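Blinded run. Sample ID left blank on purpose so nobody reads anything into the name before looking at the predicted structure. Input follows.
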Amino acid sequence: MTMIPNRTRSIVYSNRAAAATSHPLATLVAIETLSKGGNAVDAAVAAISVQCVVEPHQTGVGGDCFALYMPRGAAEPIALSGAGRAPEAANPQYYADNNITELALDSPHSVTVPGAVAGWCRLVADHGRLPLGTLLEPAIRMARDGYVIQPVVGFDLATESALLASHPVAAGVFMPDGKPVPEGSLHRQPLLAKTLEAIAEKGHSGFYGGEIADDMVSCLRNHGGLHTMADFAAARADYVPTISSRYKGFDIVELPPSGQGLAALMMLNALDGMELSDPAVSEADRIHILAELAKLAYLHRNELFCDPDFASTPVQELLSGAWAAFARAGIDMKKAAAPTVWPEVTQRDTVYACIVDEEGNAISFINSLFHSFGSCIMAPKSGVLFHNRGAQFSLQAGHPNAIAGGKRPLHTLMPGMVMKDGACVAPFGVMGGPYQAAGHAELLSNILDRGLDVQQALDAPRSFSYRGVLEVEPRADESVLDDLRRRGHDACWAKRPIGGGQIIWKNARTGVLAAASDPRKDGCALGL
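Blinded prediction complete.
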């Protein structure tokens, strides 16, 4: 048998169109949507809605979404933020007065008004070709008639289902016999099917108004939340300006804060002045460099990133050559260091899909509940499982990311896009909560520094330094871990795979698309 070195699966090549998602059914629906005359936006929304059914612990209509869309011939990508907002009654003083010292992951206070459906509706209305109802048909059918639990989803449900122990409504759906739904079994979500039907028929008002909104608001308020019908009726998705930086001759495009895409660009700017392609740079060296830059970028993220409607993030300063030089100067190759905020600046769990259609339109789309099962709170009549993105807010008065009514929290979701000479080269994304920013930098470095192809770049072992611990995916050479520990890292083998990802790379000369999907998920890439 012939094996491709350092690849877990083949790249999918196509000269027409391609799709890659974290679930095979979603990828298939994306391709089917393109075959029916839909464009990249249509295929992305159809695929993501399917993922909201078949990967229920990762994403859902009760979550948020972000997208980068590059229509063929456009001057720049269109960026959409479907970040949910805190209820108007939320503010740090309320939580202080009620002795609430943290926004617990399974608390109603961690639930912002879900923004995903607002994002779907706006994208399809402005840039889609097929009716929203047509796009949601596959998801409705799977939720109503059933879908088979795939291996990675089954594993996740088995390992994460303990989170549902104190949430009987959600447990009744995902642990119908008191046990997690196992892989290979048929599962249905009839209440969610009816909610999707309402969205298909009425769009925004079908979700953010009427009986479904009443069910969601009643559920959250019964759990102690501050949400109102007015909060849900006001839900919207916004087009936002993109931010970008140049890396190894390519323009890397991200969404601005309140997302964390800026942190990825900060890391790449620092890496751009280094030569990770040098054979003298060892595997331990590379992990050490990425760890040191991640610690620094994430410290700035936590201190400075916020909703631009409420406070400013010093984006240009953090993308400057001066910050990159500061970051590089702080790296001691012999030892790990504690990160510090650059003195020149002042305070001012997830699924993904990427698609390129036959016309050359490209989209990078991400949708999430944040942690597994989100808040674990499920509206009993509509079957909507709420995310817990609001847990990212700070309760510290005066902090840029302090909770406030109508405010969007610091967000980990970040679709990415590689551009060159004004054209889209690759829509890409990496899943994994906080890892996403470091994951973007690591994936692109794998391709542009190490010369790996798109599948090899996704397959390659990952590392992530977060909250004082450097996790490294297991590899044959255990001396790497020993080396990192000698440098002062609290390094350990990761107990579970780090993140996931998809990418479609277009050959500028031939126009051929190379699509790849991460082996850490059930998904796949397909082409027309």
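Unblinding after everyone has recorded impressions. The first strand starts at residue 12 and ends at 14.
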